[in-house]
Design goal:
This protein is about 40% helix and about 15% strand. It is of the alpha/beta class. α1 (about 15-30) crosses α7 (about 215-230) and α6 (about 185-195) crosses α10. The mean pLDDT is about 95.
């Protein structure tokens, strides 16, 4: 019998980018009862609504992925709402889980919670050694407090809550809106549209010197399902690919894969964000046997193909 076969699973954000893949992985692992709430039916910013969600869904395991997210531009434009919405949704979800006495709570954190100048590779032990990068600190700190809550509830109430910290995600079904998207979907859209329009140049944010690590969304979904089944310790766990790349080199790769010949102009008046990002993922490998499988170039190719394929309504 599958671990998941007789467990009812609640996945917040299950219709979103990451969540939709997590739901697919759960089904593949044998889960028969998966509840995916709609935000218009349950506003997780309201405690009463969150409690009603638990009463209605009666979950054994909760995977909390619902979040208000965006790239540097969206974070800079909405620091207050990004902090409040993410903090209060998580706080309400964890408190309601305690009241309901669920078996396990799985919380997705964010790489943005790490200090701005964390030594590379980022180790979980460095999580508290400084303030996050300023452009997304409110979001990062809001998510960081959920780890504090889970650890406090474990100590006082014996609640089994785990906290996973994925690096920047990308892949099919991502958000490609230039006003709110992260770096990879933004670059893909710019390159594809420049190719289609025959544009002479592409304008990219920053200097291109900052480095990033990217995790293909299906690999992240697999990690979350594995951790939900096999990991039950209070310590956070990094989820990453182990590949670091400069944003400048990333754009060159995307441009090549997209068949774009436009020149690149870097707008150095725009922020680079955190100088470097690369995670140590040895804890995930040791604790629940997970390693990322998808090379960056392969994942980028799949994402470009998805973006350029006409969608049926």
């Amino acid at each position: 019998m599958s671990f998941w076969e007789n467990r009812r699973v609640l996945v917040t954000g299950g219709r979103g980018f990451l969540g939709s893949f997590v739901v697919e992985k759960l089904r593949a692992a044998g889960a028969r009862e998966i509840v995916v709430p709609r935000s218009k039916e349950h506003d997780l910013r309201e405690k009463s609504e969150t409690l009603r969600l638990y009463t209605d869904s009666r979950p054994d395991i909760v995977i909390h992925l619902a979040a208000v997210v965006g790239g540097i531009g969206a974070n800079r434009a909405n620091p207050g709402s990004f902090f409040y919405d993410n903090a209060v949704m998580g706080i309400n979800m964890i408190e309601a889980a305690r009241i309901a006495g669920i078996e396990k709570f799985v919380c997705a954190g964010t790489i943005c919670s790490y200090p701005k100048f964390t030594p590379v590779p980022f180790r979980e032990e460095d999580f508290w050694n400084g303030y996050p990068e300023e452009t997304n600190a409110p979001y990062g700190l809001a998510k960081k407090m959920l780890l504090v809550q889970l650890q406090a509830y474990r100590e006082q109430y014996g609640m089994n809550g785990i906290y996973l910290t994925p690096v920047n995600l990308y892949g099919p079904r991502d958000n490609f809106d230039l006003e709110t998207s992260h770096v990879i979907p933004a670059l893909i859209r710019k390159c594809v549209e420049a190719r289609q329009a025959g544009a002479p140049e592409i304008v990219a944010w920053g200097t291109g010197n900052a480095t990033r690590e990217f995790l293909y969304v299906e690999d992240a979904a697999e990690a979350i399902v594995l951790a939900a089944e096999k990991y039950s310790k209070p310590d956070l766990v990094n989820l990453g690919s182990g590949q670091e790349i400069a944003v400048r080199d990333l754009l060159e790769t995307v441009r090549t894969l997209a068949g774009c010949t436009s020149k690149i102009r870097w707008d150095s008046t725009r922020p680079d964000g955190q100088p470097r990002r690369l995670l140590d993922t040895s804890r995930a490998a040791g604790e629940f046997g997970w390693r990322a499988k998808t090379p960056l170039r392969d994942g980028l190719q799949r994402t470009i193909e998805w973006f350029t394929t006409p969608k049926t309504v």
